[in-house]
Amino acid sequence: xxxxxxxxxxxxxxxxxxxxxxxxxxxxxxxxxxxxxxxxxxxxxxxxxxxxxxxxxxxxxxxxxxxxxxx
Length: 71
Prior knowledge:
Blueprint: H1 4-17, H2 34-64, H3 66-70
Helix pairs in contact: 1-2
C-alpha cells in the first residue's frame, strides 16, 4: 500500500510529540532514540506556547481594562 509507511511515521511522530507514547509503533533499532527526543520537543513546545498565549492574554487584558488607564 503506497503511503502506509509515511502514515505510520506520522502517527509515531504525533503520538510521541504529544507524549502519549502508546507503544504500538516501534521504529527499528537505530531510530529508537527519536521517540524520546520528539517527546521532549513536544513538552518544550507546548510549555512555550502556553507561556506565550498567557502573556499575550495578560497584556491584552491589562491594555483594555479601565483600571489600566488610571495607572
